[in-house]
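Attaching the record inline, Q. Sequence:
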Amino acid sequence: MTVTGVIQRKGFGTGTWAIDAEDGKTYELHKPPKDLQKAGLKVKVDGEIRDDVMSFAMVGQILEVKTFELL
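Structure, as predicted:
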């Protein structure tokens, strides 16, 4: 799937990296590359929803990044 949106730091404690998508949904990023770990970046991410991974953050579905493009 392809998601376009803005990278944000979400959650409590150590937090997690997420993308606030243009469609209004939020996706938690699973092990995001260092280049995506900066709040405010506008990006297009190609990835896969991971139903087999759990998270304490609970900010949205977990998205494993395959490729990304800075916009």
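The beta strands are 2-10, 16-21, 26-30, 42-49, 61-70. The mean pLDDT is 93.

More tomorrow.
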